[in-house]
Amino acid sequence: MAKAPWVTFRPEIKVLDCTIRDGGLINGHMFEDKLVKAVYDTCVVAGIDYMEIGYKNDKKIFAPDTHGSWKYCDEDDIRRIVEDNDSNLKLSAMADAEKSNYKQDILPKKDSVLDLIRVATYIHQIPTALNMVKDAKDKGYEVSVNLMALSIVKDRELDEALDLFADCEADVVVIVDSFGSMYSEQIRHYARKYLKAVKGTGKEVGIHAHNNQQLAFGNTIEAIVCGVNRLDATISGIGRGAGNCPMENLLSFLRNPKFNLRAVLQCIEEHFLPLSKELEWGALIPYLITAYFNQHPRSAMELRAGDKKDNYVEFYDHWNEA
Amino acid sequence: MAKAPWVTFRPEIKVLDCTIRDGGLINGHMFEDKLVKAVYDTCVVAGIDYMEIGYKNDKKIFAPDTHGSWKYCDEDDIRRIVEDNDSNLKLSAMADAEKSNYKQDILPKKDSVLDLIRVATYIHQIPTALNMVKDAKDKGYEVSVNLMALSIVKDRELDEALDLFADCEADVVVIVDSFGSMYSEQIRHYARKYLKAVKGTGKEVGIHAHNNQQLAFGNTIEAIVCGVNRLDATISGIGRGAGNCPMENLLSFLRNPKFNLRAVLQCIEEHFLPLSKELEWGALIPYLITAYFNQHPRSAMELRAGDKKDNYVEFYDHWNEA
């Protein structure tokens, strides 16, 4: 098994910034252009491999009056920020199974600055997801398939899904700890399982961790040690609920000289520190509690939005009695 | 090697709360009695094995006008909180090599409610530390020896120290990541080394992690997986600089039914949430930077106390140019 070396680096490792895409789950993707541009510029200077700028989701499902551009990633909106993306940074958008009008809204690659389409799916949506994967590959994109809410998927169903993923057109299969409920041993278990499933196919395995238990970075390291080469992170760890693996931590760990930690620190100082006064994310106690009970963070986000946001014991009792 | 099981627990594991002792490094140990009593009561109800209530350090070195009771842990002060400690919770105090007037200030066990003396030492203080270990054991205590700043100790010196620790009177030898600079692979390396060194002596190995890189909990899990049985944690993760492994995370991970997570959540809600408005601790960017450069967090604490507390890039450049 591949080992993460202490003083050198594994050149196969690629980092994907999903700051705007996952962070947008806090505020309906209503970021100012200035911030999106700052993240783009930072990713370019920091040597990050991919930036996921948002979702390719359906305006009929997510109303444009309560969602920003990055819920849909219309080509003109992306180009407003990146122009023709004259850089080494590749651009990604995520499309949710059953929430994306993908046939129409995802353009042929030749007409788009996007490079990668990541298909997000729950276990019951796999047939739709596989259609979306094929559609994106046929249109000329790199493609990833991300099975969400892994911590509540039964082993037998997962085995079937992994067989299908191994045979599908996707280039990458991502381990997604949506509830932030996994410990390093679960990550190791799934990393080995996913790597075994794609062995010989040329596909890579990725990791998308959440920080409910302050384990997003540690679990990402664990996945790296197991041989996972595609890593999701966000600047300042921004993301739904507890947030994600912080990019600044990840780049300080990876030893590849192409990465530039300083650029990320500068972006935090100038943009994310002010933003953190307006939006809340991070490893707060309610998110630890939902992870402990292997629940979606939704209820904790609702708690944090209300008057009882610090009533930890009442929230714990609510789930404990459930 | 011992494995941490997923659905059951390892009964040998013992948890030490060092909330007041390490947290006191933020405020000169000037906590109100009410808070110290709340932590004591919480530890009792939560089934925690040890509570470290402070230091046994020298009033000639640490002036009483700028330090609270828990820098010295005079017997009367401890009893003011715990009376005769009529509970299953054992009490601990730490004594720093060369900063403790231990011969005089550490009473014979029969005259003290303390159960455990933990001797903290840097690598150049080992002979003094060994004298202190012997003194505490002769007086009737359980004894631990904690080698600090491990991330800057040379392997050859560490091997010599571990040989001496294996032969000394201590019951426990603790891995201390003072700078919070270690990744799981270093933790594994040291855990195996320490466990090998004490093999056959009956001594246990412990872990004391710091949260500079948001890895205190993850690294504590890694140590558990390797077979480390003595775990340090603090309520709400309070502690010098970035703080420590959060007790609430640790208890949510450990499956021993004797532990009571709810009691810790209650203590956070009632006491540590208000305290967090007065004192600062946590995995802030400057602590990530000192860990990245394998430095003591002192400079980051100074930064946070001043006007430039969020000048991350300048602080990074300072260390990068050093």
Tell me what the structure shows.
The structure is a homodimer of 322-residue chains. Chain A folds into two domains: 14-275, TIM Barrel, CATH 3.20.20.70; 285-320, no CATH class. Chain A contains 13 helices and eight strands. In chain A, α2 (33-46) packs antiparallel against α10 and α11 (285-292) packs antiparallel against α12. Helices cover 41% and strands 13% of the residues of chain A. Chain A has an eight-stranded parallel β-barrel, surrounded by five helices. With 322 residues, chain A is an alpha/beta fold. The A-B interface holds A 4, 6, 183-186, 211, 213-219, 221-222, 225, 246, 248-249, 252-253, 261-262, 265-266, 268-269, 273, 283, 285, 288-289, 292, 310-313, 316-317, 320 and B 4, 6, 183-186, 211, 213-219, 221-222, 225, 246, 248-249, 252-253, 261-262, 265-266, 268-269, 273, 283, 285, 288-289, 292, 310-313, 316-317, 320.
Which CATH top level class of the largest domain in chain A fits? Alpha Beta
- pLDDT < 50 runs, ≥5 residues of chain A: none
Number of helices of chain A: 13
Q: What is the C-alpha radius of gyration of chain A, as a whole number of Å?
A: 19 Å
Structural shape of chain A: globular
Overall CATH architecture of the largest domain in chain A: Alpha-Beta Barrel
CATH fold node name of the largest domain in chain A: TIM Barrel
